[in-house]
Design a protein that fits this description.
With 300 residues, the protein is an alpha+beta fold. The protein has two domains: 112 residues, Probable inorganic polyphosphate/atp-NAD kinase, domain 1 (Rossmann fold, 3-Layer(aba) Sandwich), CATH 3.40.50; 160 residues, Tumour Suppressor Smad4 (Sandwich). Helices cover 31% and strands 35% of the residues. It contains ten helices and 18 strands. Strands 5, 6, 7, 8, 9, 10, 13, 14, 15, 16, 17 and 18 form a twelve-stranded antiparallel sheet that branches. Helix 2 packs across helix 3 and helix 6 crosses helix 8. The chain is elongated. The relative contact order is 0.17.
Amino acid sequence: MAIFLLSNPSSGGTGSGAWLEAARRRLGERLGRWTEVTLRPGENITALTQELLPEATTLFVAGGDGTVRAAAQALQGTDIPLAILPTGTVNVLARELGVPLLDPLAAVDLGLSGEERRIDLGICNGETFLLVCSGGVDSATVGQVNENLKSAVGATAYAFAAVGALATFTPHAVRVTIDGNALPETDVFLVAVSNTSLYGGDLKLLPDASIDDGLLDIVLFTAPNLPAAVRNAAFLPQLADMALGRHSQSDSVWIFQGKHITLEADMPLTLQRDGDLGSSTPATFSVAPHALRVKAPRRF
């Protein structure tokens, strides 16, 4: 049996290489022997992880949220804990769990000696997500992100892409059912089904969401019935409210919880899962409670 490091050299931007090298040195100091598997461009991360399972006792994953999600899909339901080395652009799951972002030595020590925590996984149309599955302005933004700019400036690249996405975005009419209860049909700028409270970094999209409560949280940023020329401007105050942590008090932002959610739209709405484009509506969501073991700091 062995401890593996699955590393994605294409994750992250400036400085991620030095961060990972420091983590490797720490692994050497603590273990003496360990095995690194480096991902090649386009390689199936989930399939590769599955190949490691018969020999692994702990799996370190160095990469962003997309890499971690793909590895977690293979670890689901096993006794092998996931230890995150956050070398991605935003590292939302590491932030959610309290994994050190700036200290590679502490992140390695946590993965070797930290406590195990069982967390939920979200499922959308049969595909796993750790953080959020959403559609609207944000999925349009993901589709417009320039990867070279993302490598150079990190999360700021999403802000540039969001400006272009909002300028051309048309709100969708959606129909949502939560545990058998249908919501009124409404037009939305954004609809997100989330397993976590954080979104895109440190923004609290769903302040009451918990990654281990056996529930999914859903938020809808509704669009007003206004002429197209001015309609999208109504999304900007909603974003400002979210940045200030007060969007849950807005009548135009709807928040609910449930275990089984269906989402339909008047025309196919592309969805993003943990920062990567995935399937589209119609979509069915469920939760797999406590399906993944992770190394995380002690909770008080």
